[in-house]
Amino acid sequence: MTSRPVLGIDIGGSGIKGAPVDLAVGDWATERLRIPTPDKSTPKNVAKVVKKIVDHFADVIGDDGPIGITVPAVVMHGVTRSAANIDKSWIDFPIEQLFADTIGRPVAVVNDADAAGVCEAQFGAAKNQAGLVLMTTLGTGIGTALIHNGNLIPNIELGHIEVDGKDAETQASSGVKDRLGLSMKEWIPRIQRYYETVEKLIWPDLIIVGGGISRESERFLPKLTLNTRIVPAAYHNRAGIIGAAWLARDRRLHPDPLDATSTPHDTGNKENT
Ligand code: BGC
Questions:
Q1: How far is the CA of 218 from the centre of ligand 1 (A)?
Q2: What Pfam family does this protein match (any one) (predicted)?
């Protein structure tokens, strides 16, 4: 049986990238398209770029194929609930509804690290791994995903645990390394401290390191001293698009019973409204 590729779109701080994904193989079916993220990265401005990417690949994905979209935020049943490294207007925003209205078809919006974790669990470094896997994506922030026996537990925000009294991602992400101009030698104690703290909280069977810097993993992974086996991601920055496509197809097969677009949704988060 052959099936059409599913479009995955990855929304990041500097670029919005999309590619049709061949889910039988676990890779992009064609080259990706990248469009810079608008300077004012509000949901509405980002939705316009997402539409351009969908239109660009319309011939490959067909008229009614599912579309998966990652965002660097907590996503509960179609509503973005946080905005650590994006415009604050994403907090409590009904993003799936906006994207669906703009594009004219249903979409599945998921957290970026969750998508990367699903890609690694289905096709990459955690394929066939039993037990608990902690996926980490090191970039501007620290994204995390938990996969248990192949099943995603969504919206686990372990990049924001407190380490030595500070929000972990503000001390140990690769974005911080770049911003402060830290050498690998200077950055390694920070990432060591992060992983040793997190492994004491959740005791995973395997930790995966993703994000752009995972391409240089041989320069820092051998220097870490941890109880848990820690390995580089197989898909590096390609994982978000692939995981988003996988989750979009999965959502079509198993609709979210708490989907905010099908029932009136009260986020209950009055502070942010
Ligand atoms: C956000 C996460 C996101 C991660 C990576 C963090 O600041 O809270 O939701 O997965 O950055 O983009």
A1: 24
A2: ROK
Tokens of 105: 């078809």
Q: Say yes or no: 136 and 180 in one domain.
A: yes
The pTM (predicted TM-score) of the whole model is 0.94
Give 149 Cα–ligand 1 centroid separation in angstroms: 23
Query: What is the domain range of residue 136?
Result: 125-233
Position in ligand 1 atom list of the atom nearest CA 111 = 10
- What CATH number is associated with residue 74? 3.30.420.40
pLDDT digits (tens, 9 = 90+) for 213-258: 999 999 999 999 999 999 999 999 999 999 999 999 999 889 888 8
- Given the CA of residue 169, which atom of ligand 1 is nearest to it? 7
Q: How many CB atoms lie within 10 A of CB 76?
A: 18
- If phi > 0 it is left, if psi is from -120 to 50 it is alpha, else beta; for residue 227 that is alpha
Q: Atom 11 in ligand 1: which residue has the minimum CA distance?
A: 141
Co-location of 92 and 136 in the same domain:
no
Number of domains in the chain: 2
- The percent of residues above 90 in pLDDT, for the chain, comes to 88
Contact between 79 and 267 (Cβ < 8 Å)? yes
